[in-house]
Amino acid sequence: MNKEIAGITVDVNEEGYLTDPSQWNETIADAIAVEEGIPTLTDQHRVVLQYLREQQSAGTALTIRGLGKSGVVTI
């Protein structure tokens, strides 16, 4: 299934998630954030996104616990 995000046609599944990680870019991230009610991605948002993309590329299972233990997110 295809969807246009930020003027770019991307492949998504039935829930609207990107199915081809190579189609992701910061412009698409910004547009998705706005769709989700986040008007502006901060530098910290981008750090978390980069970490998650690196973990996904390495084949690591993504979990909330793993993200919390990574030190990428601070409270």
Characterise the protein shown here.
- This protein has 75 residues and is of the alpha+beta class.
- It has helices at residues 26-35, 43-57, 64-70, and strands at residues 2-5, 8-11.
- It has a two-stranded antiparallel sheet.
Number of strands: 2
- The portion of residues forming beta strands comes to 5-15%
Mean pLDDT: 93
Rounded to the nearest angstrom, the distance between the terminal CA atoms is 37 Å
Number of helices: 3
User: What is the N-to-C order of secondary-structure elements (H for helix, E for strand)?
Assistant: EEHHH
Largest sheet: 2 strands, antiparallel
Runs with pLDDT <50, length 5+? none
Shape: globular
Rg over CA atoms, rounded to whole Å, is 13 Å
* Percent in helix: 40-55%
Structural class: alpha+beta
In what order do the strands lie side by side in the largest sheet?
1-2
Could you provide a short overview of the structure?
The chain has helices spanning 26-35, 43-57, 64-70; strands at 2-5, 8-11. It is α+β, with helices and mostly antiparallel strands. The termini are far apart.
